[in-house]
TrEMBL record:
InterPro entries associated with the record: CBS_dom, CBS_dom_sf, Diverse_CBS-Domain
Species per Swiss-Prot/TrEMBL record: Streptomyces liangshanensis
Superkingdom of this protein's organism: Bacteria
UniProt KW Chloroplast keyword: no
Domain CBS intervals: 8-66, 73-130
CDD domains: CBS_pair_HRP1_like (cd04622)
Record keywords: CBS domain
Protein known as: CBS domain-containing protein
């Protein structure tokens, strides 16, 4: 059985909710990633911040990224998957919530992230096509 841990990208990183968006963008550049997980003061998942969130939710609105925090952009209920979950569960979670990135948790600790690129490396063409159709479908 292939699990979430088998297909995830290890090394996902938290950013504290109180950290500013300019610092988040610097971290993304340094790490060569397009998203960071947002953690509350107890290191619980509070959301995911993407480079697009920074551009659309801050810069394009005329706000100063040195004054807006990651927590200011956190919205909705954060989704995650246990590291031992079967790939079918991973796909179901991402499809049912139309999400493109999914944090992987093991023993209440962040161990990685599953992205579209990770799926593309591990799924068949048929599985990937079905995933794309569901995640990108407009409701």
């Amino acid at each position: 059985m292939t699990t979430a841990k088998d297909i995830m990208h290890p090394g996902a990183q938290w950013i504290p909710a109180h950290e500013t968006l300019d610092r988040a963008a610097q971290l993304m550049r340094e790490m060569e990633v397009g998203s960071l997980l947002i953690a509350d003061q107890d290191e619980r998942l509070a959301g995911i911040l993407t480079d697009r969130d920074i551009v659309v939710g801050c810069v394009a609105m005329g706000h100063d990224p040195s004054k807006i925090t990651a927590g200011d952009l956190a919205q909705g209920t954060p989704r995650w998957i246990d590291s031992d979950a079967d790939v079918g569960e991973v796909l179901q979670e991402m499809q049912s919530h139309q999400i493109r990135r999914l944090p992987v948790i093991q023993d209440k600790r962040l161990v990685g992230m599953i992205s579209e690129a990770d799926l593309a490396r591990h799924l068949t063409e048929s599985q990937m096509g079905a995933w794309v159709e569901q995640v990108y479908a407009r409701g």
